[in-house]
Amino acid sequence: xxxNKVLIALAVILIGVATFIYVSKNNVKQGTMDDMAGAKSDFxxxxxxxxxKIFIADAQGVSVTLSKSANNWMVDDKYIAxxxxxxxxxxxxxxxxxxxxxxxxxFNNVIRDIATKATKVExxxxxxxxxxxxxxxxxxxxxQGTYMVLETDGVKSSVPFVMYIPGNYGYLTSRFFTEAQQWxxxxxxxxxxxxxxxxxxxxxxxxxxxxxxxxxxxxxxxxDISSDKPLSVDQEKLxxxxxxxxxxxxxxxxxxxxxARIDSIIASPPYITIEVKDFIGGSNKIVIYHMPNFRExxxxxxxxxxxxxxxxxxGYLNNDVFTYIQFATFDKITHPKSYFTGN
Length: 343
Prior knowledge:
The chain folds into two domains: 34-183, no CATH class; 187-341, no CATH class. 25% of the residues lie in helices and 31% in strands. It is built from eight helices and 20 strands. It has helices spanning 2-30, 83-95, 104-117, 180-183, 235-243, 259-267, 327-330, 337-341; strands at 53-57, 63-68, 73-75, 79-80, 97-101, 119-124, 132-139, 146-152, 155-156, 161-164, 187-189, 196-203, 211-216, 219-223, 248-249, 252-253, 272-278, 283-292, 308-317, 321-326. Strands 1, 2, 3, 4, 5, 6, 7, 8, 9 and 10 form a ten-stranded antiparallel sheet that branches. The N and C termini lie far apart (102 Å). 24% of the residues are buried.
């Protein structure tokens, strides 16, 4: 009899624990709190292919619109968006989940911060009005969650939640930035060889190594900048070189430097200029500048400081965007004329 009472007591305890876990989990998943009505926690969008537009605005009034076209996502209807950034957004929308409701003790502070400092994200799925709106606040103290409020059908949730991506560490705020230049595709040159009409490279510090490549009815010819006379080169090597212009990207836009400094760099003598023209009248030109050795990198043998950064340069693309570029990328296309001629 005594054993039966123990077993019954254990069963009651286990049932109670199971019920508590179920209710707690259900509360989090369904976005409800015992003493609050109107909570919404259905943040996720499983069918991300249905998303047609995303509008992001920060508390300072800076905004960006990402819109889906036939073949690409566009930034403010001007530039093609970076595919990797768009993929990250879609992954976020599909996998975002509730970690837990905001504790009562922190409720008022979280609501106040979101009301004054939040990033607003409107998500459209083919309609004129957004299907969901996120109000994204700060990270939690452990940086493993992000305070957020959801709005649907014009009504905001009465409860903020701590959101996260299961299996990922870190907060989500940084994924929703409003700097348009950071959203644009980092492409510098993206040409099929047959689409290239000419490639002109000027080495300002060693002008004798400058050259131009022209496409004459499918055959690539290399000559000096000041001459139309083709030089004798290995055709296979030249064709392979031209094919490298299919995937040349900058690293990132420089949003850290003040405009006065950028203007000063642009006004200084460049290191290299590269311009590619196509057969439909388009062109892309990048002007490359040395980057100072801010990190004070030393030569491994002599211990002397390098004059310039050994990993990066500045790149000014189409008189429009000032970027950081990597030697690891541009070494592929910044060969001197002697590389082809053997002289």
